[in-house]
Amino acid sequence: MANRYLYLARHGEAIDEGELSPIGREQAELLGRRLAEHPITAVHHSPLPRAAATAEIVAAHLPGAAVRSGEVYGDYVPAAPPREELPPRHAAFLDGFTETELASGPPLAAEAIARHAGPAAAETHELIVTPNYLIAWFVRHALGAPDARWMGLNQGNCALTAILYRPEAPPSLLFFNDMSHLPPDLRWTGFPAALRA
Q1: Structure pTM?
Q2: Is the pLDDT of residue 113 over 90?
């Protein structure tokens, strides 16, 4: 078994949760330039237009990287713990989803973890471009935190997170929500204005 370097990026800023905005396209271009120095061989992405467009822009900087879309990288709630175990704010957040939506996410999240959260047969560098929740789920998993802890772990648009999975060692969170490749005016989109640094 060998090391797996898993890079996770939220899609670029979008217009009404649809196509990328001009800012989102610029963010994706800068993310691609940053990742060009890494030997990434696969880019996995959500089928949502904003994630697909971000992946396409980034992949243009990664010659030879396979680009794959899949529902497992989509926009879903990865876990919905019992409301009585949650702070009121998180319980209220989950109330905004139907029971069908809450039930459909956990199997997809489990599949994503099974595919990517562990050492590989040979050293692997791969990128997942996705909405916010799945990144938080991978971080929670890497840290061994309770299922509910994915809530409140938020990333900016085209921010980068990296996790290293090594044989016979626990996962290492290398960095989280890193926006150093973005100029200050392109950082913190995807957060409410009151929370932007």
Answers
A1: 0.96
A2: yes
